[in-house]
Write a structure and sequence with these properties.
The protein has one domain: Uridine Diphospho-n-acetylenolpyruvylglucosamine Reductase, domain 2 (2-Layer Sandwich), CATH 3.30.43. Helices cover about 30% and strands about 15% of the residues. It has 4 helices and 6 strands, in the order αβαβαββββα. The strands form 2 sheets. The chain has a 4-stranded mixed beta sheet with strand order 1-2-4-3. It has a two-stranded antiparallel ribbon with strand order 5-6. Helix 1 packs antiparallel against helix 3. The radius of gyration is 16 Å and the shape is globular. The N and C termini lie far apart (about 40 Å).
Amino acid sequence: MARKDVIDGTRNEEGIASALPILKQRFGDRFQTGQSFREQHSHTTTYLPSQLPDGVVFVEQTADVQEVVRICAAHRVPIIAFGTGSSLEGQVNAPSGGISVDFSRMNRILQVNAEDLDCTVEPGVTREDLNT
């Protein structure tokens, strides 16, 4: 695909406009719509241009994720998962707008089973944290 072939998706302007104040009321300062937050959550290391989300929610527990999904589903707003921001293929882009869900604060290591060589972690755990 050439850069000229990258197009934005269809935006649900009404749904996005309805969801934004609900997310702000529910999450307060953990919901950001500022330009710099949105740019940070759409940055990719690919040739694709950044396509910014309409907002970023910093989730801290499973219930937060469930609430974001409920709100966005009710208003038909796309959700973009954001881990450590190491997108190589543009998967953090928001071609149809939407809400970026930042998992960096869900960084607990829940269980390590050395004998089985497996573990249970939250999505924000980095490999460095796990190795330590």
